Amino acid sequence: MPLFNKVAIVGTGLIGGSIALDLKKKGLCKIIAGVSRHQESLKFAKKTGAIDIGSQSLCVIKDSDLVILAAPVSAIKEKARRIAEIISKDCIVFDVASTKEEIVSLLDPLFPRFVGAHPIAGSERKGIKNARPGLFKDSICILTSTKRTDALALNKIKKLWLELGAKVVLMKPQAHDRILAFVSHMPHVAAFALINSVPSDCLGLAPNSLKDTTRVASSDSGLWSDIILSNKKNVITAVKVLENKISDIKKSLLRNDRKHLIKILNQAKARRDLLNASNPT
Amino acid sequence: MPLFNKVAIVGTGLIGGSIALDLKKKGLCKIIAGVSRHQESLKFAKKTGAIDIGSQSLCVIKDSDLVILAAPVSAIKEKARRIAEIISKDCIVFDVASTKEEIVSLLDPLFPRFVGAHPIAGSERKGIKNARPGLFKDSICILTSTKRTDALALNKIKKLWLELGAKVVLMKPQAHDRILAFVSHMPHVAAFALINSVPSDCLGLAPNSLKDTTRVASSDSGLWSDIILSNKKNVITAVKVLENKISDIKKSLLRNDRKHLIKILNQAKARRDLLNASNPT
After folding, report:
1. What is the pTM (predicted TM-score) of this model?
2. Which CATH class is domain A176-278?
3. Which end of chain B is more exposed for a tag (fewer CB within 10 A), N or C?
């Protein structure tokens, strides 16, 4: 049964496009309108059946009962007021940005029925061409709530993500940003720094250890600069912890302290093995 | 056609066992003797057909024309003299240790026909139970040569690794250790530090970025303590470069320098994309 009548997706990229494909496949809405700056993305989205109507103009989102903000954060910031003018007060709005405190504090007052969402299912690839149905199956989607959050809207968006196969976790935007700094933004910073540390003449001998630890360094530079800048405070805190842990290993090496090194590596193994147990993928 | 008559493998673990399975499958020798401290490993190796004879005693390596040293470095150091006493001067010997300068300088004077080898095909798993034929297919095997190296022995070992499907790269032990510090040991140090930096209450929300960047943190603690300690000088140099690169990103965040951040991330993406191009796996 459709949860929504008309859904508008502002930003038909990897995430927006994948949500659209799933909404269609699962019959969760009657019609989908897509908005993008890129005519080519709209064409592709229409061809794959992700959207019914595509437009470079925001006017196409009129009369939606759900608007999904899946454009880059800078574009969302720019367009939010205009979107609020076009849609009705009853329209539910959610974003999918990777950091929440900044964007939620901006959008919460603008839209009466706003919910912050962060589907943890991205990839180092981007764009509608990499969109696919089932992207969110068995993934985690974090929804954020604040004092302003409309309970019915939150419930409906939760239902939508459950239908998309995600496990839904609810938290405050501040808690989200602290956790994501550690589990996602810090590992990205490490990956960027790692690959930039390898002298060019060594790259030809890259084993899987280097490939895996740096896979996410292929991520989009603009997108990821914005993510870590918008979560600056937490990312810096996390990176300082990382610097201390690296320094601890370096010092053990300097003083030839095999015992302490083994203790550090045992702790690392125990913690990493936990991820295998809890997340068999 | 068999390259060898009797091959002895000292250390029937992941690497030793996988070499044995391939030697057998490809008919590269007539008989394989396995030595291990662990009775269970020998039993398992015999059951899977990796070895013909298994023993906890080194005596079983007598009359081999090839001895493969695939035990942990500490065990090799301990047993090297005893092995040299048992085998003939014509017997070719190679090790498979992950660092080369220390072990080669020790073994080179002991065995007249010694070659240093490092098949870059390990895994965070270890033990004969994870051994499999084809482990080295399309991998890289680095062979090291010194002034002492016997050219015919080197050629025969090169032939063996080519038969196992590896691409063979030749270099000095010193060059090997410098490169491996950057492409393997430093990424391991980063992975150990990364997973130890994540607060326990955040681990349940680990996305693929954290899983991939830390996969190798599940590696064996004793083995990896020995590897990075034995290549201490180069690893510390590499880790210092990493620390500078991390600090550079942190400083860009502190001064809100999006332009410099994008430059760093673009460089990272360009370098990481190179690995995809050159190594399609």
Report:
1. 0.87
2. mainly alpha
3. N
